[in-house]
Design brief:
Length: 110
């Protein structure tokens, strides 16, 4: 599973540099049943310009229900509250309408 690979990569990165803690993979978990429905995270810690890139994915059965929007909003809020981030960036494919919609709803991407 892709999550296993992400966890392994993040743990290896933590071993090399503990300052990346929090800037890797987070799971998107449904409150009502503790089911993992996706992952979200930053592609590394903030750079010298206090910028991070966010990425996310939700399993097909849970898509188009607002989970990605909620997760992105929460992680962006967390990043800005850290005092280490002034800018969050994201990329998605031009035909990924759902992801574009998530990013358009978030103020940092407008």
């Amino acid at each position: 599973m892709i999550w296993d690979l992400n966890i392994e990569m993040y743990l290896e990165q933590l071993k090399r540099d503990s300052s990346v803690k929090g800037w890797g993979v987070w799971f998107v978990i449904l409150r009502e049943n503790n089911q993992v429905i996706g992952d979200i995270g930053f592609k590394g810690k903030p750079n010298d310009r206090k910028t991070v890139e966010i990425g996310y994915g939700i399993i097909p059965a849970a898509q188009n229900k607002g989970f990605a929007t909620e997760a992105v909003q929460g992680l962006i809020d967390w990043a800005f509250s850290s005092g280490q981030v002034e800018k969050v960036i994201a990329e998605c494919l031009e035909d990924n309408v759902a992801s574009i919609r998530v990013l358009e709803l978030e103020k940092p991407f407008k």
